[in-house]
């Protein structure tokens, strides 16, 4: 990413003058899995008019990393500007983007937009953050799907989760 690019701020995409306003993220397709996350952020309403109504979206729940500065962050592009996000969130977004390339038909219906709190909520604006965190339940309910990213898990866990999903009904597991 060109370091001379300006930094993204929430002022670039302000929330609507509506108590149910949120931001949604669109991750642009990539040629290679490791390509930089290039995103578009929009502001919509959960209960607005047709012009501001939120499109169908997914929500991403991921493991927030500790405040340990050695863990790192990553720069992504948001509306053509650079933004620093947690490494764990960048990895979760990369995995989510990869789902669109999956041959597994259960992932073929992935929504065009996604809500991810670390980007869609201005973490440095305490009044906004307080309101938006209070709306998270509504956001998750409105989402078409909620993707839970556990981060890097030990070998074998992924296959255990796949088996649990496949046999959830006969095992009494509800995923």
From TrEMBL:
Source domain of life: Eukaryota
Classification via Pfam families: HET (PF06985)
InterPro entries: HET, HetReg/Transcr_Mod
Signal sequence coordinates: none
Residues covered by the Heterokaryon incompatibility domain: 57-152
PANTHER family: ANKYRIN REPEAT DOMAIN-CONTAINING PROTEIN 39 HOMOLOG-RELATED, HETEROKARYON INCOMPATIBILITY DOMAIN-CONTAINING PROTEIN
Protein name in the entry: Heterokaryon incompatibility protein-domain-containing protein
